[in-house]
Amino acid sequence: MSKAFLKLPVMFFTIPFVYLSLLLDTYFHSMFGFLVTLLFSLGVGFYFKACDQLPLWLIGNVLSTVFSILLQNQHPEWHFFYQPFNPAFLVLLLSVLYLIPQIIGIIWATSLKVHLSK
Question: Based on the structure, what is the number of domains in the chain?
Fold first, then answer.
């Protein structure tokens, strides 16, 4: 396995999953963004477990949530678009919901006994 592929988790820290899904939903009025980011988060959970990087997974989720909250502040129109929810509350709620497919990915990697060598 190439070292560049094993260092891939560093890239996941910079992806604000929830912000991207809300942004795609706002501009395209489609649930496609939620579906894509949910599937991607399933892969993220699988990958972090396969690389035995679960502490980095937890840090990455916290950073992704913080980035999503900071970025959603740039869109004051979301207060009206996502009624009755406050966008910051919606980001926190969706961040918790995005943990579900990640945990499924972790369980899936555990049951398949997948380990990427370092």
Answer: 1
